[in-house]
Amino acid sequence: MRENGGGTVLVWRLGVRLPRDDHPEACRCFTSHRQQIDCEHKIATNWHTGFSVQERAYSRRSAVRATEEHRSDWVAQREMETVVSRTALLIVDVQNDFCSGGALAVPEGEDVVPVINRLVELARQRDWPVIASRDDHPAESRHFADYGGTWPVHCVTGTEGAQFHPELDVEGVTEILKGTGPDDDGYSPFRGQIAGSGRDLESHLRENDVDTLLVTGLATDYCVRASVLDALANGHQVYLVEDAIRAVDVQPGDGQRAIDEMTKAGAQTITSDQARGL
Ligand SMILES: [Zn+2]
């Protein structure tokens, strides 16, 4: 629906009222279904404002498909109608060794568990995929100080320390194992494999039409940081849930510096309460 002179464009398919662009009268946007497609492009390039992040993500992916595949307008429109963009919850390394009493305990690491569990519940309600990564190191790894690396021995395959925190709700989640090779630091789950299948995380996200990630877990200044930077590099929209992460802080301020770096790279910080508004 179009209104002349500073009105609004109503995109029926999205069901969202958007600010109207100031098109010339002869603009091709004013003809039949072409209007919707061009409006999608403007959403993608942020010409419109005032729409929610979820809608923007939906539209960006639709526009990319419509343009990249050089389809006719009609086919492009039909395809856009079938594309669904989704949010996923990523839980990074909430394992015993990173919690109190563990081999590489993150201060207050276990405090993220109830916050994340509430987000898992939210994800189930919204049908968001949930992915949980685990460090899963061999006993001899160059990741460890004993073998030329940085860290004390932690999260060795088959040990209690490598298991998820017992109160973390991981029922039905997709599990990513990382750091499994003897030379592999495994900071980012994007460099790991899905347990059992050996497939990679990015393929899994694409297959599930995920383009927005809520990132939580341990530790802010290492594996969370690596996860967020890889997700952004892969083109995802990233929300860093600030009350669902904790830092190692080897040097005081490392956690805050990592947050600054992630936000500078394009991540947005939100609280777990705000995540309910996505
Ligand atoms: Zn590790």
Rg, Cα atoms, Å: 22 Å
Determine the number of helices (DSSP H or I, runs of at least 4 residues).
Answer: 8
State the strand order across the main sheet: 6-5-4-3-7-8-9
Strand content: 15-25%
Shape: globular
Which class of secondary structure composition applies to the elements? alpha/beta
Task: Compute the separation of the termini in Å.
Answer: 26 Å
Q: What ligand molecules are bound, each kind once? A: zinc ion
Helix content: 25-40%
Count of the separate structural domains: 2
Indicate the CATH class of the largest domain.
Answer: Alpha Beta
Would you spell out the secondary-structure blueprint of this structure?
Blueprint: E1 8-11, E2 16-19, H1 34-44, H2 53-68, H3 73-82, E3 86-92, H4 112-126, E4 130-135, E5 174-178, E6 193-194, H5 201-207, E7 210-218, H6 220-233, E8 237-246, H7 254-265, E9 268-270, H8 272-275
Parallel strand pairs: 3-4, 3-7, 4-5, 7-8, 8-9
Antiparallel strand pairs: 1-2, 5-6
This protein binds zinc ion.
Q: If you had to describe this structure to a student in words, what would you say it looks like?
A:
It is built from 8 helices and 9 strands. By secondary structure, the chain is of the alpha/beta class. The chain folds into 2 domains: about 1-80, no CATH class; about 85-275, Isochorismatase-like (Rossmann fold, 3-Layer(aba) Sandwich). The protein has a 7-stranded mixed sheet, sandwiched between helices. Strands 1-2 form a two-stranded antiparallel ribbon. Helix 6 (about 220-235) links the parallel strand 7 (about 210-220) and strand 8 (about 235-245). The two termini are about 25 Å apart. The protein binds zinc ion. The site of zinc ion has 8 residues, from loops. Zinc ion binds near residues 137, 143 and 155.
